[in-house]
Amino acid sequence: MSKQELDTRAAKSLLAIADAWYLQMKGGEIPYITLPTRTKQNIAFDDQTEVWKYGDRESMRSASTEKSAVHLLKMAYVIGFIRQQLREDRSSTLRELYYITEGWKRAKFETQDESNYLVEDLEILADIPREGFHLRPEEDGAGVFGPLRIRESTRRGDRVLHCQDDVGESGYQIPSNLETVELLDHSAKFVVAIETGGMYARLIENGFDDDYHAILVHLKGQPARSTRRLLHRLNEQFHLPVVVFTDGDPLSYRIYASVAYGAIKSAHMSELLATPEARFLGVQPTDIRVYNLPSDKLSEKDVEALKAELTDPRFATDYWKREISLQLEMQLKSEQQAFAARGLDFVTEEYLPTRLADMGVI
Amino acid sequence: MGFDSPTRGIITTVKEAVDNALDACEEAGVLPDLFIGIRKISEDVYRITVEDNGPGIVPAQIPFVFGKLLYGSRFHQVRQSRGQQGIGISAAVLYAQLTTGLPTVVTSRTDPKEAAHRFELAIHVESNEPHIVSKKEVDWDRTHGTRVEIELRTSLSARKRLLEYLKFTSVVNPHARIMADIDGETLTFERVSAEPIASPKAIHPHPHGIELGALKRMTAASAAPLSEFLVSSFSRVGKKAAAEMGAAAGLDAGRKVKALSADELKRLHAALQSVDVPAPPAAQCLSPIGEDLIRQGLDKEFQLDFVKARTRPPSVYSGHPFVVEAAIGYGGRLPAEDRAQILRFANRVPLMYQQGACVITQSVSDVNWKQYGITQQGLPMGPVLVLVHVASTNVPFTSESKDAVAAIPEISKEIDLVLKDLGRELKQFLSRRDRRKAQDDRARAICSIIPEIAAKVSEIVEKPPLDVSPIEGKIMRRVVAKKWTAGGTVHLSLRNYTDKEVTLTLYDLSPDEGKGAAPAPSYTDRSGDDFTRVWQVKLPPEEGWDATYRGKGGGRIELRGVEDPQKVVVDLDV
Questions:
Q1: Full residue range of the structural domain in which residue A28 is found
Q2: Do residue A198 and residue A319 come from a single domain?
Q3: For chain A, which terminal residue's Cβ has fewer other Cβ atoms within 10 angstroms, N or C?
Q4: Average of pLDDT values for B430-453?
Q5: Cβ contacts (< 8 Å) between B461 and chain A: which residues?
Q6: B548: burial class by Cβ within 10 Å (0-12, 13-18, 19+)?
Q7: Is B73 part of a structural domain of the chain?
Q8: What's residue B16's pLDDT?
Q9: For B549, phi and psi rounded to 5 degrees?
Q10: Is the ipTM reported for this complex over the cut 0.95?
Q11: B388 CB contacts (<8 Å, ≥6 apart)?
């Protein structure tokens, strides 16, 4: 969808929400909204799309109590603000929105969490991602490096960039609104999503992208929406396999899960953000043993997280059961940069080629 | 025994004297008028004065009451009394004498026709006999009563607890007027009940509750044969029970009890416990405060949103009759965050120390308060007050200092039952209150926020402004009063959504002068910088009324003429 289309659709959807309230009140009804219940209990795995979405549970919010009425009032103010913003073709960050509400008296937000949450509610109600509202997150996008050509429409006009030839050593910075980016073409065979900046830089320095025709994407920890959106589009548009390379600890497995299956907070966007075909590369517990990697003892929290993952349907495969059990047995975890213990080239010359060949990616 | 520290000494002394004064008034059927004075004499010496309008004490008895330890005339009586053991006041006399070397001054008068007598008393420590330092007849403006003045080495650092003691005493003795002058700070606890308390009657001891020592004293003083002794000296013992007891002890019914050997007495004592006898007659020897008086007492000293009291039917442990009563208070000026305040009483005396060791505190903690809508961390939390009174012919204390009631299963069961009963009442009150709050919340939401939503939404969809009064009317069925300010004009509006005609008085108080108000108010009142405009409006069902004037708004409005649940008053500028 082009930016123009998205803007038009966003404006329309928001107007429809306000119009529904107008009609409700005109008919002598208390205005209300209906939303899926946004809790863990109402997250279900959608077999067809293989991502996590909100379930069937819905809650109705009617302005019949002071709290709910104020919530609707705030929503009305935010809708009014976004309509204005769309009209003037401006944009703002979620944090700026929070500060703008300062002048809204009773509709003023108490915390930024509250305004963030309300924007997510609006995304669900309008069925429009927040980019359509011209709202940006605070976090800056992570980087991408590899044989990929894109076109970004910027304030100064369209820019066509090659993500190796036209960018610096840190790669192309993914904008927070990926809808302004068109993926033109590529000469890659696969995509590696990398948790840490250190490993991302190591692969670039060692020329891994050139040697193996790989697009490298930096996740920067728990990845931002735009990063996940990029992975989704690389996979969907170019049918490129996506592998996820993280630390070998339970919290990093969750990073993989959010790339592959989606997160609770953004379950309404899972179809756009998740890449169900993404596969976990490592560091696997097996690798810790096989390569005798430098490691740390699991903390109590790690053990708890691993046990939780054993019962998590997202990890309910033989592969994960085997690996998690092994890790619980070893009581160890390793960072991805621990490969440096075997020399700086070990990861690009030994580990990745072997592992990727095992996975059938190269 | 309550004199273990100087700070406690002052409270124990006041307490012993006040207990005696209240007991004396009760016996004579007099409404108590007490005066308690505490005056600093020197750095660490205080004079404590306690004066009552009781029946007074005959001069011959005065030296023994105040100057002999363990004298108490009520020692062997089986009935509810405050002091219960006569050690109290003479111990205070001794404590004063040991710390300051000064005698205690007692003035007493029994009748307007008799003279008042003034004694200076001390105690011979070796012989435990009273020592009369001086004695004379004096003029006194009281027609009857007793006044005690004790000077002791102590401190007033427990002032707060002392005030609490007086307050709590007043709660459970709402028939007493208590005036106090605590080193210059004067207080009056007014009486709210003009009914003197019926003095509990003494009963014979119950065979199950008698101690061996007491039995020994009773047999020594009796000339009767066993059977007759048992029937006439114990309650609920008839000829048949007496015969069974004699048989169980292996004693002949005709034996003179005076002549029983120590071993025979022991067998008799065991036999008394073993034979089934009906429970003692509790009603006449116990004097519970009663639900109404507890409520009045609490209302008087704590301003509460909710208070309920319960008196349980009398019950018995080991042959001792007892009765438990309790009350729960909520809200008002009780602190919202703290632990609940626990008021413990035994025979109408507040228990001020060792809260943690007391069966009352344990029982309060053992109740699951969460099921009654109260948070709990051991004790219940929040603006809650729990009062428990245990009255008995023999309150089982954990120790001689009489600070805490012992954990007797029969007693904790009664406390548990009464608290659960009151807990259910409290829950009902809380849920009714929450319902009312939810309704008010809804009313405010509809009348003040929905109009704002309507204005914003109309602006977004670029359609004519919405009139939301149908929503109000449909949902509220109340009278709605609103005030708002826009563009230098103050608007007032009244809408009657009920199905009856109402006659309303609207008070609008603010610094605005309100000149040119249309319609003009019925009258305007000025006080200081504020003006109060008053409109009287008759409003048929479904009708509205509006007024405007130039001004800045602010202040507040009040609506009279309809009951609270029937009206909604909103200030849209707030």
A1: 3-136
A2: yes
A3: N
A4: 84
A5: 15, 18-19, 22
A6: middle
A7: yes
A8: 86
A9: -155, 160
A10: no
A11: B324, B325, B326, B342, B343, B344, B345, B360, B363, B364, B415, B418, B419
Q: How confident is the model at residue B76 (pLDDT cuts 50, 70, 90)?
A: very low
* Number of domains within chain B: 4
For residue B349, give the amino acid letter. V
Is A103 within 8 Å of chain B by CB?
A: no
Within 13 Å of residue A338, how many CA atoms lie on the same side as its CB? 23
Residue B327 DSSP one-character state = E
B449 found inside a domain: no
Would the CB atoms of A65 and B475 count as touching at under 8 Å?
A: no
- Give the span between the Cα atoms of B299 and B293, in whole angstroms: 10
Cβ neighbours of A11 in B, within 8 Å: none
Find the helix or strand (DSSP H, E) in which B218 lies. Answer: helix B212-220
Q: List pLDDT tens digits, range A290-317.
A: 999 999 999 999 999 999 888 877 788 9
Question: B497 vs chain A: nearest CA distance in angstroms?
Answer: 14
Q: Measured between CA atoms, how close is A105 to chain B, in angstroms?
A: 10
Give me the active site residues of A, please.
99
Token look-up 């442990």 returns B317
Nearest chain A residue to B458, by CA: A22
Please answer whether residues B124 and B131 qualify as being in contact, where contact means their C-beta atoms are separated by less than 8 angstroms.
yes
The sheet carrying A157-162 orders its strands as A157-162, A148-154, A181-186
* Nearest-by-Cβ selection for B460 from A18, A31, A68: A18
Are B466 and A25 within 8 A, CB to CB?
Answer: yes
Of B441, B456, B463, the CB nearest to A76: B456
- Which residues in chain A are closer than 8 Å to B468, comparing Cβ atoms? 25
**Assigned token pair, B425:** 């009442």
In our burial notation (b when 16+ CB lie closer than 10 A, e otherwise), range B431-443 reads eeeeeeeeeebbb
pLDDT (mean) for B367-378 = 91
Q: Mark whether B144 and B18 lie in a shared domain.
A: yes
Q: Does B477 touch chain A (CB under 8 A)?
A: no
- Whether B74 shows a pLDDT value over 50: the answer reads no
* In a shared domain, residues A97 and A238: no
Q: Which residues of chain A have pLDDT under 50?
A: none
d(CA A34, CA A124): 10
- Pick the last residue of a domain from A115, A136, A157: A136
Q: Does residue A31 sit in the same domain as residue A148?
A: no
> What whole-number distance in Å separates Cα of residue B144 and Cα of residue A86?
92
Q: Do A106 and B466 touch (CB under 8 A)?
A: no
Q: What is the DSSP string of A146-203?
A: SSEEEEEEETTEEEEEETTTSS-TT-EEPPS-GGGEEEEEE--SEEEEES-HHHHHHH
Same domain, A198 and A321: yes
Count how many residues are written for chain B: 574
Residues A304 and A345 grouped into a single domain:
yes
Distance CA(B46)–CA(B306), nearest Å, equals: 40
Q: Any idea of the CA torsion for A80, A82, A84, A86, to the nearest 10 degrees?
A: -150
Say if B460 is an interface residue toward chain A (CB within 8 Å).
yes
Q: Residue B335 is part of which domain span? A: 309-431
Same domain, B419 and B547: no
Q: In the predicted model, is pLDDT for residue B424 greater than 60?
A: yes
Residue B86 pLDDT class (50, 70, 90 cuts):
very low
CB of A153 within 8 Å of a chain B CB? The answer is no
Give the residue ranges of DSSP H helices in A240-299.
Answer: 250-260, 270-273, 285-290
**Angle CA(B348)–CA(B354)–CA(B359) in degrees, nearest 5?**
65
With the CA atoms of B519, B520, B523 and B527 taken in that order, what torsion angle do they form, in degrees rounded to the nearest 10?
A: 110
DSSP string, A242-258: EEEE--BSHHHHHHHHH
Q: What percent of chain B has pLDDT over 70?
A: 95
